[in-house]
């Protein structure tokens, strides 16, 4: 249950089944989905969340018609589930040629220059049209 959500949210049916004794307070914010449309927030409640010996008190919003539970960024970092920025940095700086030298030898390696000859009258082209990216990505 990881996400990049700003707040921890639960579907209404999970709240009803798991947190039967909790009372909902009126929401103090209007929460929006990744498409920036407002979500139908039924209320919020506070509870303690524990994971592998770490715990935090989190305000959880209950959303109608939500499919998946989302753990918000503050809770992710409090519970030690956030990304390790040092490991991400080390991966991005690594030289792939030095790390995987076997991939840069043998088949596919051409010494010198190579030219592509086209048929007379051929017009080279490239497809460079923009592609839509889904909003959650």
UniProtKB/TrEMBL annotation:
This is Peptidase A1 domain-containing protein. It comes from Araneus ventricosus.
